[in-house]
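Why does residue order matter? Because the sequence determines the fold. Keep that principle in mind as you read this record.
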Amino acid sequence: MRIGIDIDGVLTDIEQWQLDYGSKVMFEKYNKEIVDGNAYDFTEVFNINENLDSYFWRDYLFDYAVNEPARKFADQITKKLKEDGNEIYIITARFLTEREDEEGNKMRDIVINWLKKYNICYDKLIFSPENKLDICIENNIDIMIEDYTKNINTISQKMPVICFDARHNKECVGDNIIRCYSWYDIYAKIKKFKSI
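Structure:
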């Protein structure tokens, strides 16, 4: 089976990182607080404009990309999935990776080194646009592990999606959507899915 895996929100907990670092920076620098802790987009979380959003990510994106650890047991489960004969495709729309400039190259290198540092097993790494459905179809992905609501809803129209539980994706439900809460939960659901 070919398994697609997102990075931000699946291999990492960007949701909590955004709330932790965002609330510190927004409060200390701009006297702003969290307005909607269930929102996905940083502008909605803090009710800020695009300029302030850009300033935040310009200053903190690389720190996040280098230093945010992998979720617990992501390394063990990707290894188990490989040992079980699955192919793993890391499919990420990480900020800047679509750019063909120095910052894009830097971020792609960070991603590669981060995956190695945290022992995440994979067969192929794909830097994709935000809408991942076409990438999944082109690579014959059998099941995608994703947290972003738009991708979950779009991809699940064509193939099963494991929805990594987050505050912002609670409304994602459907026949092709399998909600999971941890990496071992993902493993159990994939084993069950393969046996059907």
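The chain has a mean pLDDT of 95.
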